[in-house]
Write a structure and sequence with these properties.
The structure holds 2 protein chains of 2 kinds. By secondary structure, chain A is an all-alpha fold. Chain A is built from 9 helices and no strands. Chain A has one domain. In chain A, helix 1 crosses helix 6, helix 3 runs parallel beside helix 7 and helix 7 packs parallel to helix 9. The longest helix of chain A is centred in the middle third of the chain and has 30 residues. In chain A, 44% of the residues are buried. Chain B is mainly α. Chain B has a domain of 160 residues.
Chain lengths: 226, 240
Amino acid sequence: MTPSRAAFAAILAKDLRSELRTLQSLPAMALFSVTTFVIFRFGLDRTSLSGSLAAGVLWATLLFAAVLGINRLFVAEREEGGFDAIRLAPIDRSVLFTAKVAALVVYLLALELVAVPIFAIFFLEDAGGLGPLVLVLVLTDLGLAATGTLISSMAVNSRARDLLVPLVLLPLAIPLMIAATGATEPLLSLGGPSYDRFGTWLMVLGLYDLIFALVGYAVFDFLLED
Amino acid sequence: MYGKGLKPLSIATVAMLALSLSLVFFYAPLDADQGFIQKIFYLHVPLAMVALVGFIVGGVFAVLHLRSDDRKWDAYSYVSIHISVIFGVAVLITGAIWAKASWGHWWVWDEPTLVSFLIVFLLYATYYPFRYAIEDRDRQARYASVFAVTAGAFVPLNFMAVRMAQSLVHPRTFATADGGLPGEMMLTFLVSLAAIALLWTTLVKFELTAKSASGQVKRLRRALDAPVGGGGSRIAPEVS
């Protein structure tokens, strides 16, 4: 195993283990999502959702819950000296970026494992669209993770940490949300799932993921410079 | 240092703007269906194009800054984005005026070009709170450059995604069935585009000059106030 791959595995394992032991982000993200669903039920005055409304409620909630997790992504690194350790280690520094993206993807998938079934129970008439929805969820999580990790690593060193992440991340996440809701809306439509432009939206998601993963990987080294 | 050539550039800009305005009002023909209101197009579209190119240029300067670590590129990047954001405000306002006059609404959501531009504008508007929240000067410059690069990569992606989400189209004046703009309108448009591009360049140069001058004044002030001998004053040579 090359040093980079070993470092990637080590950082990812450390993050997951730490999250499992302290349970800082995940329960908060899950609880936030469920409470937000309840708020939407009353805010929209509806007990069942379909089509564009369902897609919008689901993705807005997942996005804001993701921001909660993204805020906390690098806090431990900053406070416990993780950044210094990476600077000293004889490895490619972008490994920290890829490991954190992977960790964030895992957190988001874990969140969706809880939030999406609950969303279906609360609001959906039939669960036929949930299967293909998994594909949309995975691709969107990758994009959200890449952009979120990049912004989080910059925000953690600033004064207004918790403000900066939502401020800068949300405009960047808009194309992702456009594509995600575009793909989800026909899946959750009243008459059963349809795949109107499904492939195109998946391609847009894939393109976004590719671009931001590459950009993040390329610039991360500059972010770690002292 | 930056001020060289600022005066001739400003004069050229004023001349071009005067020329373009006279062409708009006295030379370009009236549009068949929109009439006089269409003339705001000669201001709105060049502003939008120059603002977007300005954002990309800011991203390019940011790349240069990251690669060379020379702070002047960071200054160029910052000022490019600054002037482009201001032009962006002008785009949104002139666009709203045009929309109200020709479609009856100040803002419409089903025009992909409007929405894309709004999103790009909102993103670059976060550049300032983002930048100033980072205290360490070097880090601030580096992170701002990373932001500019990321945002530059974002611009085309955003336009594509928003366009895909819509069915209606913004007036595609350059690609209509009958071949696009007639000759006089095209000439007026190109002159306006050149004038706005010159305006952008002049404003960028102006702001860089002003910043550089105030930076020099600050440095001199600091050197004057520094303790004699111990601190290593920048004016007096070191005495061994």
